[in-house]
Design goal:
By secondary structure, the protein is mainly alpha-helical. The chain is built from seven helices and four strands, in the order H-H-E-H-E-H-H-E-H-H-E. Helix 1 crosses helix 2 and helix 3 packs across helix 4.
């Protein structure tokens, strides 16, 4: 039950950032973030890559290297990633401790996987997203011979 509430809260976070466009805007923000964390540009999005991306965002915010960030440091995450531009620190700090550890932030459920990982495999291929032609395409090397 708690997991379901957390999943709904994550999706609500994404929708809140979308403004009047609601679901379409939320999808646009999630899809727009894909190139930032598809590290090998293969169009396969994994939980491991998402956690790596979240870890990098956390590291940018944790300038003092204390292993945690506070609300003022969270602003660096908002500035670095458009998907988090409207995020509230309190959303990631439901216990109200005033600080987020790396684990608190990195292990928070991804709105992308909640929305698109319907098989719960922590792996979503671009072909599974049913995106319109105008959606951003991954860049990088092409599949085939190496």
């Amino acid at each position: 039950m708690a997991g379901a509430r957390r999943s709904l809260a994550v999706f609500a976070f994404v929708l809140a950032g979308a403004g009047p466009a609601l679901a379409q805007g939320a999808d646009d923000m999630m899809i727009g973030s894909l190139p930032s964390w598809d590290y090998n540009h293969d169009g396969v999005y994994t939980c491991a890559n998402w956690k790596r991306y979240m870890g990098e965002l956390f590291s940018k915010a944790d300038r003092k290297k204390r292993g945690f960030i506070d609300a003022s440091e969270f602003e660096a995450i908002k500035a670095a990633a458009p998907m988090f531009a409207n995020a509230e620190f309190a959303y990631f700090d439901p216990k109200g401790t005033g600080r987020l550890t790396r684990a608190d932030f990195v292990d928070w459920p991804s709105p992308f996987f909640i929305r698109y990982d319907t098989r719960h495999t922590c792996r979503v291929e671009r072909s599974e997203l049913n995106l319109p032609q105008s959606a951003p395409a991954p860049t990088g090397r092409k599949r085939g011979r190496r």
